[in-house]
Amino acid sequence: VQPRVLITPIEKISGENTDLTSPKRDFSKIHKVWVSGIDIFTQKRYECTFFPNDFVEIPIVNESEYQLIDIAQDGFLTLMNENGELKEDLSLLPSKADVVKKIKTLFKSGKDITVLVREAVGKEAVYDCKEIVEDQ
């Protein structure tokens, strides 16, 4: 039996339902399970139907924090991890418009920013940022 693969990383499951054969809540008689969720990269809603005996692979989502060093004209970021290594292959373009605006506003005002990045299924995207506050 081939496992069905859920290849889209879902931020949160926004709906679920089961199709029962009888009005009694006998879960051994479930015919299918319906799941609805939002993709963490594209913000598109996806709906899937699975059978109870299907194997569903769920992608692993990793989150990382980087300090923002620079924003290039083409939207690519220069980031630095906690070990001091630079990362220059991440663009702002696949990010949500409100996140891009927030990053650009904080950066132009001269604030130190930490950029939060999600990585799954071979893709990476900035999903939020926060100002670095120095302890006094």
Structural write-up:
By secondary structure, this protein is mainly β. The protein contains 1 helix and 10 strands; from the N terminus they run E-E-E-E-E-E-E-E-H-E-E. The strands form 3 sheets. It has a 5-stranded antiparallel beta sheet. The longest helix has 12 residues, at 97-108. It is elongated. The termini are far apart.
Query: What is the beta-strand fraction?
Result: over 45%
Total strand segments: 10
Structural class by helix and strand composition: mainly beta
Our count of helices gives: 1
Q: How would a crystallographer describe the biggest sheet?
A: 5 strands, antiparallel
Characterize the overall form.
elongated
Describe the SSE topology.
Elements: E1 4-5, E2 10-20, E3 30-39, E4 45-50, E5 56-57, E6 62-71, E7 76-80, E8 86-91, H1 97-108, E9 113-120, E10 123-131
Parallel strand pairs: 1-5
Antiparallel strand pairs: 2-3, 3-4, 6-7, 6-9, 7-8, 9-10
Summarize the structure.
The protein is built from 1 helix and 10 strands; from the N terminus they run ββββββββαββ. The strands form 3 sheets. The protein has a 5-stranded antiparallel beta sheet. A 3-stranded antiparallel beta sheet has the order 2-3-4, with no helix packed on it. 9% of the residues lie in helices and 51% in strands.
Which short descriptors sum up this protein?
single chain, about 140 residues, mainly beta, five-stranded antiparallel beta sheet, three-stranded antiparallel beta sheet, about 10% helix, elongated, disordered N terminus
